Every structure is written in structure tokens, then in C-alpha cells.
Amino acid sequence: MNLVGGVALSGSESTLQYMIVSYHLNGSLASIQPLTGELQLCPEHPARVGLFRQFGSQYENRCALSLQPLLTAPDTLFYDVFYVDNGKLFPVPVKNLNYREGGRLVNVDSSGVELTSPSARVVLHQRFVMYDNLSGRQGKTTSPPTILSYAVQTGLRVTMQSGSSSLIYPPLLVIRHSEREAVSLNDDLGSWSTVLFRAEYTKDLTSVWTAAEILFTLSLLTIGAVWLLHLWRMSLNYDVDHVNRKFLVEALSYLVLVASDILYWLVFIMCTYFLLFFKCQSTAFILLPLEDSQEEYVFTTVVIFVFFGKCFSICRVLWQQISVDLFFMDWEKPKLVSGNETGASSSVSVWRKLFVANEWNELATARNVNVDLLLIVLLFLLRGINLEYLATSQPSLSLTPGSASINILLRFAVSSGLIMLLSLAQLVYRQLVHHRLFAHQAAEFIDFMTMSNISAFVLDSNFHGYYIHGRTLHAFADSSMEEMTRQLHMERKEMVKERGLIGGKDTFEMFVTPDFRLHYISIFLEMAHLRRGLKPFSLAATTERGATKDQQGFRPGDDVALAKASAKLNRFLCSFIDRNSSTYSWAESERTFTQRVLDIPPAIRQSNMTLFYDDPNYKFTSLFLVGIEYQIVTFLAALYAVCDITFSNTFVSIMVVYAANQTLSYVRHHWGQINISKKTLVDERFLI
């Protein structure tokens, strides 16, 4: 039998009408009245007790219920529920999940899960009880019950007819009972039970899930295509005849990165689709998947995979950043000592290199997205103005707390959407306002290097790296304030040539040849070997007061071998950049449009010279946190989503994300500082 009355998301037809008839044990009529809270054993606020009748709103009332009062509660009543359909009463069928035939449970499978398949054989009833404190009595009906039966789970399920936005099938009441011995209820801990009442509104979402499957298939194809492209890029500069573990780890790591990234956006698009169309619809075009359904299980599984994939990718990128090969090239020449007849030269000051190393260390943890500010604003939006209630399972934009249960798909769309919007707003501000009117840290760092007469040579992989040209235009950088002011004045008046290595260009992406790489590593390993062989240094033997704790461990200032090795690498790199090396040379090159779009590297293994590509967009910032802002934000968004699913608490989720971001910055700063000290020979105690 089909119902003829229609339903709607607003107006009088949005509230479903039920009548409930109660009977005593002897079959006599007890009452006939509109259904309110009779199906809910958990106490509920009077203003909320009827919310389950609001069409389209998923309602849930869950509590820890004390069972002792049910032993002495009024005698058991039997109920019939009727749906009011255009003034007519239609009996609501009841699916009792405890019903047995021949000792076998009929309405559930072997694992106790409700049978919901249309082809499954189920048995429906009409009359039911919410609790039974009569049948467990022995002897007289006035005897105390020995067994208490109660409805531990009750669900009122309303399903829309396929192809209709206003017609529904007859509602279905699903009940699962549980039993307790009266003796066990004397124990205070054993007298409690979790009881649930839920109102569910469903619609056939086959078309939606078909579209989701198509998107998922396209996502897998995209993941495969991007991964194969990356493998091809790797093979250009790799000996494919000798694939080793490093190659496989790199390939699998990139696969995890791409898969987690694309699946994150797939889940975000699907959840945003539900948020927009469910919340803004005027007719019942779409309803949400049921709570604890297969769809929610798939969603949770994908989000957890995305989180671990993002976590792995962030750890991998951090490891790459804190293990780059870095060397600061000092172009400064010794000054002749005036009045010295022998023509002796003064030594070159080390302070410029120390300052540059500290600026590099500071730039390593600089960010365009202020996560602390983002989380404060996010907390204000979610809890301050109740935007988190946009995720309630009701087809309206109401922000009233407690008006309906929170849906995890909508919650993901709201939280991730706000995180992305707040991050994007900060990035737009940085690019359009802050970098233009106030400060651009990367550009200022390059200016500082030029004034310090120091360049940076960085290799972040075997054959790839960056070169930042910081050679000054003046005779000396180690000068007085008066001389430095005069130098800046000359540059302003264009009295000297343009800064930069070639045509005003001072930042380059470079691809070095294997021979160059081997020679560079050989000199660097010479320094590393000498450094490991040094013994701790203490001033106690040379001063009367002895050395302080912070002074102990400094490398001895007269270690000639280490200084010579460092100077050797400095001379080699300076000679290479000046094109004075007869063995190693470089040339400026330009990528084609296809190479830029697909990020295709040159086949440097077949080249006889190092290639320099102009880097006007400061791609070298990928060595710092500011260069992986996208990866960090998506990782934090995935972490927030997992915490939200686990704790369902905005405050806890934000605190976990805050702690993760602080840990990220600390690890990058601490271990990056150690790497700077190890690779540039700047003592870690000078890095602040």
C-alpha cells in the first residue's frame, strides 16, 4: 500500500504526524494520542522531543540510562503506531530484530546485523513494547521481576519513493531489545546501559553513488597517469638498468603523495556536494546517507588513508629539507693592511657568513599561512557564531545548537572548507598586499646576501639544486657603515652595474652533471671527515677561570686542515661560477612551455655541462616550510578531520592541530639548524 499524502522540507507538510495507541496486558485500551516521546527511553528536553518528526532531519537521542527505575516503573504497555496520511491512519510496521522462528533469528544475519536488502525475507509486526517488567515475574504479577527486557535501539525509518521529491513509503519502526537479570541491576555499575533512539530519512542515492564511482575511477586514472609521468621524469636522470631500493622508495613515496592528495579533494568535492545541495534545496532532491552506513564507513576509511598518506608525505619532505647539501660561498677578498711594507692582507671576517646562516635558518620556518591565527579564527567561526551547526542533518541553514544530529560528511565539508578559505585568504593577502607593500622575506634575504657578498649553493637531490647569487657589486662588503651607505647610494643612482649573475638574474634552478656532483661530494666528504676527527675544545687550559658550559665543545680556531678544506670547496665553487674551471662549466638555459607545465627536467646525465634556469618565482623556497605551504595545510586539514571523527569535539581537534603545527616547526628548525652547522661549518652555537 502506498501513501497518497506528500511531504516537504518546509511548511505544514514538513512535520510528519503520528498517532500512538497503548494497551494494557489484558488488551484493554489505555490511550490514543499523538506520538511525542513514547519511543524514547532517554529523557529529552520538551522543545526537542518532537524534532524526530521533522522530515529530512536526522535525529538521535542517545544516553546512558539507569535500568533500576524500569523494574518499578508502571506495568508494561503495548503500543501500536499509526502514520497520519491525509487524515487516514496507516499502521506503521515494526521490524523486531529479536524475533525468532524455530529458535532462529529472522530479521538479522548470522552476525546480528539487520537485513536491509529488498530481496531478504523479513517478518514484520504491528504491536511492540518499549520495556517489559511483567513477563519476568514468577508467580503473582505483584512479584518483583527477575528479568528486565528493554528497547536498547529504536529507529523510525522513513524512505522516499524513487523518482519522487514528495512521496514516501510507509514508515518502518525497527527495534532491538536487550535483557538484564534483575540481580545484576543491584550493582551500581551494572545497572546502566547505552540506549539509542534514532529517526532516519533516506532516499535512493544510486545516481549519486554512480557519479561518485565514476569520479573515483577517474581519480585512480589520474593518480596512475601522474605517477607514471613522475617515473618517466625520474628515469631521465637515473640508470634504469640498475634500479635500486632508493629508486623504489622514491617512486612509492610519490605514489602515496599523489594518491592522498587527489583522494582528499575527491572526498572534499563529494562532501561539499552534499552540503550545498542538501542544505539549500527547496524540495527533497537529496537526503543524507544514514549514520553508520556503508557510505560513512567508506568515507571514514578514505579520510584515514588520506591522513596517513599526508603524514608520510610531510615527514618525507621534511627529511629532504633537513638533509640538503648547503654551502655558503664567500666572495670577499682580503684587504691590504695600510702602512704594512710587506703588503700583508687582513683576514676576511666570518661574521657575514654567520649572519647569512642565521637568516637562512630563520627563513626555514617562515610561513605565509599563520596557522595560529587560522585556528583562532576557525574556532571563532565554528563555535563563536555556530558555523559548525551547518553540519547538522537537517535540510536548512539553521545554526541552532542541538536542532539535529551532526553529520560527519557535512562536518568534513564545513571544517575543511573553512580551513582552505582561511588559508587562501592569507595567501592572497601575502601576494597582493604584504609582499608588495611591506616585506618579502625571500627577496630581502637575497638582498642581504648581496650586501654580505655571499652566495648559496644548494643541492637537494643528486643532480638538482639551486644557486642564489649574492656577489656584491663593490670591492668589499666587509666595510664600515659609512662605506655601506655610500655603496647603497651608488646602486640607487645606478652608478654601478646591475645586480645578478646574468642580466640581473640572481636566483637559479640548476641541474649539475654527475662528474660535477662527484667532485663536489669528494671535497665535502673531506671536510666532513676532518670535522668528525676533531676533539672537543675547552678554554679551561688557556684561561684562569676556565670555560663555561656553553664555551665547551667549540671547534679549535686554528684547525688548519679543516679551514683549508672549506677554502678549497669555496675556491672550487667560485671558480665554477666565474667560469674559470677548465673541467666543469655551466650554461644558462630556458625550458620550453611543455617542460615548464609538466616540470620535465633535462637529461643531465647525457649533458657535458651544468644547466642554470632562471628562478624568478623563488622556487628555491621549496627548501623551506613556506615552499610546502600547500602540503602543510592539507595535512593539517586531514588531521583535523580525523580528530573530528574520533573526538567529535572542536576544541580538542584544534588543540591537536596546533600541537602538530608547533611540532612541525620545531623539527624543521632544530634539525635544519643541525644540518646548516654540519654542511656549512658554522658552529651550531652561533645559530640562534
TrEMBL record:
InterPro entries (alphabetical):
Meckelin
- Keywords associated with the record: Membrane, Transmembrane, Transmembrane helix
Give the UniProt record's GO annotations in the biological process aspect: cilium assembly
- This protein is called Meckelin
Q: Which residues cross the membrane?
A: 208-232, 252-277, 297-319, 373-392, 404-429
Q: Name one GO cellular component term.
A: MKS complex
Xref: Pfam families: Meckelin (PF09773)
